[in-house]
């Protein structure tokens, strides 16, 4: 596999994992709101941890610190779109903070909290889908046009460093997040995961 294919594969597969986890939460809580599924709060908090910390620690740094600066160097006209995407990376946090607040209220069975959580989760999912689509439909195709073989090699090397085995086992390593992803898939009820329905 060429460094270019490696880099594109990593970005896309991280988007897929994130998208899948956000969607799983959305589907599960749609059903909870309809009363067809019992809420599993431990699972919901694990998913919120994943969608908050995985991008922050492993995904956004690859884009903000490695890929985007290379693109800016080749094509300053990309500044506008890359500035917007970087702002969105930072703007995700208030959405997630609100989701945590409403999940906690829902767990405390505060009236109306389930509806508010579901509404905010859907808004967050749309925001995130649009963000990833812009990266995949605008940024990655442009990267294919302007980056050189050397750029791809350097980016692939930086991505590999961010996979440091010395940190494996800590809740910030890619190995730990892969394990958490597998646990989430095991716990999310069918048909969105492989867990039992309760
Ligand atoms: Fe991304």
Model description:
With 198 residues, the protein is mainly alpha-helical. The protein has a single domain (3-187), classed as nmb1532 protein domain like (Four Helix Bundle (Hemerythrin (Met), subunit A), Up-down Bundle), CATH 1.20.120. The protein contains six helices and no strands. The protein has helices at residues 3-34, 41-74, 79-107, 113-146, 149-161, 174-187. Helix 1 packs antiparallel against helix 4 (113-146), helix 2 (41-74) packs antiparallel against helix 3 (79-107) and helix 2 (41-74) packs across helix 6. The protein is elongated, with a radius of gyration of 18 Å. The model has no long low-confidence stretch (mean pLDDT 92). Fe (ii) ion (FE2) binds next to helix 2 and helix 4.
Summarize the structure.
By secondary structure, the protein is mostly helical.
Please give a handful of descriptors for the protein shown.
mainly alpha; 198 residues; Four Helix Bundle (Hemerythrin (Met), subunit A)
What is the topological layout?
Elements: H1 3-34, H2 41-74, H3 79-107, H4 113-146, H5 149-161, H6 174-187
Fe (ii) ion binds at residues 15, 59, 63, 132, 135.
């Amino acid at each position: 596999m060429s460094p270019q294919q490696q880099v594109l594969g990593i970005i896309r597969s991280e988007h897929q994992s994130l998208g899948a986890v956000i969607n799983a939460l959305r589907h599960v809580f749609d059903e909870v709101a309809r009363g067809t599924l019992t809420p599993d709060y431990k699972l919901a908090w694990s998913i919120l941890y994943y969608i908050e910390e995985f991008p922050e620690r492993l995904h956004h740094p690859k884009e903000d610190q490695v890929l985007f600066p290379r693109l800016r160097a080749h094509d300053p006209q990309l500044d506008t779109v890359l500035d917007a995407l970087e702002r969105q990376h930072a703007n995700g946090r208030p959405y997630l903070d609100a989701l945590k607040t409403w999940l906690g209220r829902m767990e405390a069975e505060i009236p109306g909290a389930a509806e508010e959580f579901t509404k905010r989760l859907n808004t967050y999912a749309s925001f995130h889908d649009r963000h990833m689509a812009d990266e995949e439909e605008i940024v990655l195709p442009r990267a294919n046009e302007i980056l050189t073989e050397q750029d791809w090699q350097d980016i692939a090397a930086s991505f590999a460093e961010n996979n440091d085995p010395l940190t494996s086992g800590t809740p910030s390593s890619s190995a730990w997040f892969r394990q958490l992803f597998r646990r989430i898939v095991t716990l999310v009820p069918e048909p969105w995961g492989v867990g039992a329905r309760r």
